[in-house]
Amino acid sequence: MPEVLEIESYRRLAERVVGATITRGWADAYAAKKLSSPGAWARAVRGRTVTSTDRRGKLLILGTDGVTLAMRFGMTGVLLLDGEAGLEGLFYGPHQYRSQWVRAGLEFDDGRSLVVHDPRRLARVEIDPDLEELGVDALAISRRAFDDALGARGDGPAIKARLLDQSRIAGVGNLLGDEMLFRAGIDPRTPVGRLDAAQRSALYRSFTQTMRTLGRRGGSHTGDHMEARFPGGLCPLDGAAMRIDTVGGRTTYWCSVHQR
Q1: DSSP assignment, residue 64?
Q2: pLDDT tens digits, 211-257
Q3: What percentage of residues in the chain have a pLDDT greater than 70?
Q4: DSSP calls for 119-137
Q5: In this structure, what is the dihedral angle of CA atoms 207, 210, 212, 215, given to the nearest 10 degrees?
Q6: Architecture of domain 4-132
Q7: Is 103 helix (H, G, I), strand (E, B) or coil?
Q8: pTM of the shown model
Q9: Checking phi first, is residue 45 left (phi over 0); if not, alpha (psi -120 to 50) or beta?
Q10: Class in CATH terms, 135-255
Q11: What is the pLDDT of residues 147-170, one digit of tens each?
Q12: CB atoms closer than 10 angstroms to residue 212
């Protein structure tokens, strides 16, 4: 399930096509759902030279000498450059390649191809994406920006839901959200406005440490809580039963003892 760490690995892979000129682009009806038609992608990309790569949260951005191109990867999308994956081992990934799962792509004048492979059909391509709808990037967030994203004191939504709100912080998904709260010892159901100063500080430390540590390990699926992410799992810290709840519309695993 690609989150900000996975998209950053895709961005590094896409760096290899900077300077190449696009000779052909294609997108199926699923990938082109945010466009006027599947053909809009083909028309917009042909003849453009890739000049840069960027990322905002889970959105991969390719700059060109004309339009700006973007790709979203849904829950199982993987970026492939000539068959080489930007990341292997997605927790909910396909674990195999099938040509019918290629949803969109670009072909270049040097014979290479960059494609989006997604069995669940949730990946999307965009042209000149609106970045205003996205919050601060999760890999570059300061303490002040983090506090602003959480919002003022009061009730508010559950902290897990706030972490997943892409308009507040762009890039945190279900696995990263659970890992951050697991490390910070915070109940994911806690209304964000009821977190005290100590909890906010602990969560920010956990946020930044989680990004660094899981980035080094290889992705969002490498968190400390993952070994207990199944019904009947026991907390790897204290051996207590792991709870399973739906928070922010997502299945949430958390420790019944040390997360308060």
Answers
A1: E
A2: 999 999 999 999 999 999 999 999 999 999 999 999 999 999 999 99
A3: 96
A4: TTS--EEEES--GGGS-EE
A5: -130
A6: Alpha-Beta Barrel (3.20)
A7: strand
A8: 0.92
A9: alpha
A10: mainly alpha
A11: 999 997 777 899 999 999 999 999
A12: 11
Q: Where are the domains of the chain?
A: 4-132, 135-255
Strand partners for 250 = 247
158 residue type, one letter: A
The Cα 99–Cα 109 span in angstroms is: 22
For 113-143, the pLDDT digits (tens) are 999 999 999 999 999 999 999 999 999 999 9
Q: Which residue do the tokens 């308060």 mark? A: 260
Question: In whole angstroms, what is the distance from residue 172 CA to residue 4 CA?
Answer: 6
Terminal CA-CA length for the chain: 27
Residue recorded with tokens 């997108």: 27
DSSP 238: T
60 vs 55: CA distance, rounded Å: 5
What is the arithmetic mean of pLDDT over 103-115? 97
What amino acid occupies position 47?
G
Judging by DSSP bridges, how do beta strands 102-108 and 84-85 pair with one another?
unpaired
87: which residues sit within 8 A by CB, 6+ positions away? Answer: 2, 6, 9, 10, 78, 218, 219
Q: Which residues contact 113 (CB under 8 A, 6 or more apart)?
A: 81, 82, 105, 106, 107
